[in-house]
Amino acid sequence: GQLPHELVNGGGRGRAAAAHQHRLQQRAPGECLADAFIELCQKEYDVVLMNPPFGAASKPSKNYIDSTYPRTKNDVYAAFVERWVGKLVPHGRLGAITSRTGFFLTSFQKWREEVLLEDTKILVMADLGNGVLDTAMVGTAAYCIEKNNDDNKSVFFHAITEKDKHNKIIN
């Protein structure tokens, strides 16, 4: 595919973008997507929003996750959070809706202590319980964390038993 004209010629990088576009057009379509994905994974971000998968790692990915994310290997969502916290710029923020288990089970202690409390600070956390994700039968938590934040202020909402979780949090 082609880049929109304003991206190719914008930002004073028109020639470089045009050369990059030409190189992409010389490749097979799947290669372009792979290159774009690799480029996205190499950048750092101001904001990351996620609803990652949860549960044990699949058989094909288990060895990789165990060796690459030893402090969060017990659940895929914790490894996702750890990975993307590492891709945030200083004071970058990550917002997530995940299983709530990481905030309470002892098997997630390293994730809480090292990822949530050392690498980042919790800005806001809502313990939502069940009934949030349409078909998933899992208790959920929604939270926003900030990398390299030294402020000790956090806001927590307990909405597990609330039928109208939105109003509990907003009002």
Summarize the structure.
Helices cover 40% and strands 23% of the residues. The protein contains seven helices and five strands, in the order H-H-H-E-H-H-E-H-E-E-E-H.
Report on the architecture of this protein.
By secondary structure, the protein is an alpha/beta fold. It has seven helices and five strands. The chain has helices at residues 5-9, 14-25, 29-42, 59-68, 76-85, 109-119, 165-170, and strands at 45-50, 88-99, 120-129, 140-147, 155-158. The protein has a five-stranded mixed beta sheet. 20% of the residues are buried. Mean pLDDT is 82; it is low at 1-14.
List the helices and strands and how they pair.
Elements: H1 5-9, H2 14-25, H3 29-42, E1 45-50, H4 59-68, H5 76-85, E2 88-99, H6 109-119, E3 120-129, E4 140-147, E5 155-158, H7 165-170
Parallel strand pairs: 1-2, 3-5
Antiparallel strand pairs: 2-4, 3-4
